Amino acid sequence: PLMRHPDLRTEILPVPPGPLLGADTTAAYPTTDVTLTPGTVLAFYTDGLIEAPGTHHDHNLTALVEALSHAGHQLQDIADTLIDQAQPPGNRTDDTALLLLHIEPRPRTNT
């Protein structure tokens, strides 16, 4: 997953790989602790977003990080940017899934 901080700095989270989600109901999955502040965006994606025949994985991942750091602030704009930077639909050979999470500020309370 990727994490975009409120200052738009974007990093690859150091999450160890685990089994495919849902493939084994008894599987144990690794965890990673991170601090989420208001304005943070997390991007979870399948390999179909960054892997394509004839391309280099590291280059595609770097491009995804760059795209997220320059994407808009609305989740739909971010999703469109990340999907559009991937391979054109006609060139995709794998399914693609993208899940975005935006940490909203806590609403003010009148006390």
TrEMBL record:
<dbReference type="InterPro" id="IPR036457">
    <property type="entry name" value="PPM-type-like_dom_sf"/>
</dbReference>
<protein>
    <submittedName>
        <fullName>Serine/threonine-protein phosphatase</fullName>
    </submittedName>
</protein>
<dbReference type="InterPro" id="IPR052016">
    <property type="entry name" value="Bact_Sigma-Reg"/>
</dbReference>
<dbReference type="Pfam" id="PF07228">
    <property type="entry name" value="SpoIIE"/>
</dbReference>
<dbReference type="GO" id="GO:0016791">
    <property type="term" value="F:phosphatase activity"/>
</dbReference>
<feature type="domain" description="PPM-type phosphatase">
    <location>
        <begin position="1"/>
        <end position="103"/>
    </location>
</feature>
<keyword id="KW-0378">Hydrolase</keyword>
<dbReference type="InterPro" id="IPR001932">
    <property type="entry name" value="PPM-type_phosphatase-like_dom"/>
</dbReference>
